Amino acid sequence: MRDTKFYFLTLVCLTLAFSAVGAQRDSVDVRIAFGSSDDYLKAKMESNASTLLTILKNAAHDKKEPKFPDNIMTEDTEMKIKEMWKSSRIECIYNEIRTNCLNTSYGDLQIRNIPVIFTAASEETKNEEISLNFNKQGLINDINITIKLHQYESIFGNSEVVEDIVNRNKILDFIEKFRTAYNCKDIEYLENVYSNNALIINAVERKIRQIPNSDQPLKSLGEKQYDFQVKSKAEYIAALKKVFKKNSFINIIFDSIEVLEHPGFENIYGVTLKQHWNSESYNDVGYLYLLIDCTKEYEMQVFVRAWSPDQLFDFNSFGDIKFHDSK
What we know:
The chain is an alpha+beta fold and 327 residues long. The protein contains 7 helices and 13 strands. Strand 4 (102-103) and strand 5 (109-118) form a beta hairpin.
């Protein structure tokens, strides 16, 4: 429990450490207050983060494609940023950032909750926060849209078991990667993260009408009823590719996050997220339920993805699911 509280307080300090000063418009300066005892590595991370955020800020302001030097990030990260840029320009809000360094569950170093604007988003949803991960050489090796600070407590709760805390850290990383994959339309990541036997469910509220000229009201008028559309992984991915192709910009926001450990299966977690889906062709708000397997150290698997307009699903909804498939 002490580790969980320290982790959360560190994140509070991290966010409070941001400051905006009157530096020149085209420069972003990142300084890491604490979290790394290696001065050379810390300086490398600060330099690479400053360079990246400055380039993004200028490119967004000038409405041009960003061009990066070869020595600040991995090739995969550069490709990911360019895919994100296709959906929306990303502009760092502040010119000066004071932040802290954290260790991720996978051994990377990370600075997070960096305030940015996604220029293609609506006025209400354009303000976001991102994280930058670094390898042991100080190169940026991942970028993701982070969840808000207040949502950390809902993920870690009162967990005191070390293994559970480790798994919840993995789930935190996963949720942010998962959300970012939809926003930058990374179909390859999503294909890999869903189990081959994944169950995809979409609940649609059934519309019930009063019988014309009837003196007897329908008893079910006060009760919501749902139809459940079920798809295989292959069917879902095929449909998702069409959605990605149809929309140049997709912005998914998660809040009201709840993480519960399965009472009967080790390393299995149920995650409930209130999902705000925003795109050019469609917008909605509903509840996303994910049944996740944390068994593999570096590869999370989703066995169930169930969406509903109201909070309908939990562990009891999927008693017959078989975990640890052959993927």
